[in-house]
Amino acid sequence: MDRPSEAQDQQIARWMRQGESRGFTLLMQHYGGRVAGFLRQRFPSFDEQAIHDVLADAMLALGDSFDPTRGSLAALFLLLAHQRAVSRLRADRSQPQWGAWTSGCEPAASDATPLEHLTTHERLLEVEKIVRSLPALEQAVVEADWEEGRAVSARELAIRLQTTAGSIYAARRRARQKLLARCPWINRMLQQQQQKGPTDDPRASGG
Questions:
Q1: pTM
Q2: Using an 8 Å Cβ cutoff, are 39 and 85 in contact?
Q3: Other Cβ atoms within 10 Å of 183 Cβ, number
Q4: Any residues with CB less than 8 A from the CB of 128 and at least 6 apart, and which?
Q5: What is the DSSP string of 122-163?
Q6: What is the four-CA torsion angle of 123, 129, 130, 135, rounded to 10 degrees?
Q7: I need a surface site. Which of 90, 152, 172, 190 has the fewest CB within 10 A?
Q8: 4-53: pLDDT as tens digits
């Protein structure tokens, strides 16, 4: 498949920002195999589920991060995937990769203060209300991800929900945007997690 032009890359990024499934589909068709291959070579301990988790996380950030004046879409996808992979290695492997979504809305610990219990309970109710208000596909994707504690394979969900992988990626992005817009505390948690992540660039190390 021919490499997309700069104009086509910009269109793919626009579609991703708009939550259009074709943007995610084209990104994976053009660059997904190459980036996945890099991850398999650079992180041999990752299984296919780990590769998928990293790709899904990188794609969620890609649309909003892409600036054609600072590099190509392929290069940014690779950089984001590398950063997420290193963060995953550094994280406690017992923690789900969607921990930043759910750690603030899980039942409070037994030694939590009454105020912490109240805050956690209110957050649970807030998130549940928002998820119930989402369109059917977005709601199904979020609930599946939370049930598994990770971003479930788009192909797996596409078969289960009788749709396409691109539609799953797009629905996940739209749901994420809505939750972040209506729950500022989730956004703060994600930012804190990213600040702890790596800043190294695989292009600088010859990888």
A1: 0.54
A2: yes
A3: 18
A4: none
A5: HHHHHHHHHHHHS-HHHHHHHHHHHHHTS---HHHHHHHHTS
A6: 160
A7: 90
A8: 788 888 899 889 888 888 888 999 999 999 999 999 998 888 888 788 88
